[in-house]
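Fill in residues.
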């Protein structure tokens, strides 16, 4: 019974999609620890819990706010709230508990993280409304998620640094780019219901071109990170591999190919985020050994 409920709520918030942002946050942790080593693993644990809480709150709130749209969309009608598997009240309680986990975890890190947790939570929840009035909702989503590396850096160091903002810029354009690709699935529905996704406003082809441009910027930010943090050849090879995956993604994601869009969205982008973390981790490990 308990396991079934956990699985149901995990499906509601697409827990598997945590794979997109968490590796970026953990990459920021590694870069911070390189310069500010800590003697305990507790900060890393609280960072992970904060990430889980923040994302769960944001996704749960999004499912509540979008429930009436999801019920009308054939692609999303089977989601947990419109399908009646989770009530709005239960989902609201879940969002409240997830928000509390996020704020509490931030408080356990340091005062700076605690103070910032409140405006960050507002930004996370407010994303759910942006698709109602602006086609730049994808960029807003990227911006909100890009706060993860900044938060992880501040959790370890207790201060802000412009250098980690380079990683956040890479994450922003990575997220916004593939969110535009994902939105191509609902172009007709979004137009019919008056929602402001990029594909619904400027068309699928133009949106995919914009997504490609964003991923060029993302690649440029990854390259910049090489110099900002004085990384080494393993990281450079990682960036080349990521750039190659971006090219594959945009070759695969074509108008009128929903199955290809799904593959590009989850499979390729999931590999990119994990590859980044592994590349940075390997680069720093070899640097330490040498």
């Amino acid at each position: 019974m308990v396991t079934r409920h956990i699985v149901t709520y995990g499906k509601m918030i697409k827990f598997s999609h945590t794979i997109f942002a968490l590796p970026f946050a953990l990459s920021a942790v590694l870069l911070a620890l390189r310069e500010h080593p800590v003697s305990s693993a507790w900060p890393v644990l609280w960072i992970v819990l904060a990430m889980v809480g923040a994302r769960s709150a944001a996704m749960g709130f999004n499912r509540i706010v979008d429930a009436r749209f999801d019920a009308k969309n054939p692609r999303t009608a089977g989601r947990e709230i419109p399908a009646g598997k989770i009530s709005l009240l239960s989902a609201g309680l879940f969002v409240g508990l997830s928000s509390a986990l996020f704020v509490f975890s931030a408080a356990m890190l340091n005062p700076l993280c605690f103070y910032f947790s409140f405006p960050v939570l507002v930004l996370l929840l407010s994303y759910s409304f942006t698709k109602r009035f602006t086609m730049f909702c994808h960029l807003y989503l990227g911006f909100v998620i890009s706060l993860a590396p900044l938060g992880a850096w501040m959790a370890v160091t207790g201060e802000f640094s412009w250098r980690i903002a380079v990683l956040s810029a890479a994450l922003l354009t990575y997220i916004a780019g593939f969110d535009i690709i994902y939105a191509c699935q609902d172009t007709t529905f979004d137009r019919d219901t008056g929602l402001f996704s990029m594909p619904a406003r400027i068309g699928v082809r133009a949106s995919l071109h914009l997504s490609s441009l964003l991923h060029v910027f993302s690649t440029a930010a990854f390259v910049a990170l090489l110099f900002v943090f004085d990384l080494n050849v393993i990281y450079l090879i990682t960036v080349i591999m990521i750039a190659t995956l971006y090219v594959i993604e945009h070759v695969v994601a074509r108008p009128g190919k929903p199955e290809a869009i799904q593959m590009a969205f989850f499979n390729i982008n999931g590999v990119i985020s994990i590859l980044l973390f592994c590349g940075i981790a390997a680069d720093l490990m070899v640097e330490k050994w040498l």
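Residues 2-289 form a domain with the Tetracycline Repressor; domain 2 fold (CATH 1.10.357.140).
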